[in-house]
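Page 37, top half.
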Amino acid sequence: METTVYEDKAKQLIAEMKQLIEAKGINNGNALEEAGLNHELVNKIFNGEQLPSLSEFLALCQISGISFQLPTVETPNTPM
């Protein structure tokens, strides 16, 4: 099965998240369950068997401490 560039990037990001989570010592803690992720699912994601959904990816970002800001655009409150 051929992978795309985006899948390769996602797997790279997930590997980095795994390292951060393990370094913080919360891999076996309650933080995963509090974020709505069970250990079985996280193991599948970290072992490369499954890519996370958007909500799972954002939960892993939150747990690992990765934050990002989406760009915002201010628009005038006048009709065009």
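Page 37, bottom half:
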Amino acid sequence: MKIRRTLVALTAATSLAVAGAPAASAATYPEPLNQVMDEMVKYGGPQAPNLLLIPAALSSLGILNSLLVMATASSRA
């Protein structure tokens, strides 16, 4: 019975430590980016920094499209 309580206590402590760690370091950006992120959150709300992901996603789609075009062109030759 003591072992079970000890394991439950260790699991709870580990869960709290892991869950608390990202929250403490979530807003650590280099200083110029930190200012930009603060302004984005101020004007657009907490989800506004996700807009920075759009150019990366479009770039990835462009790369995939060019690979598909090259693969299609080489299979026809």
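Margin note: The chain has three helices and no strands.
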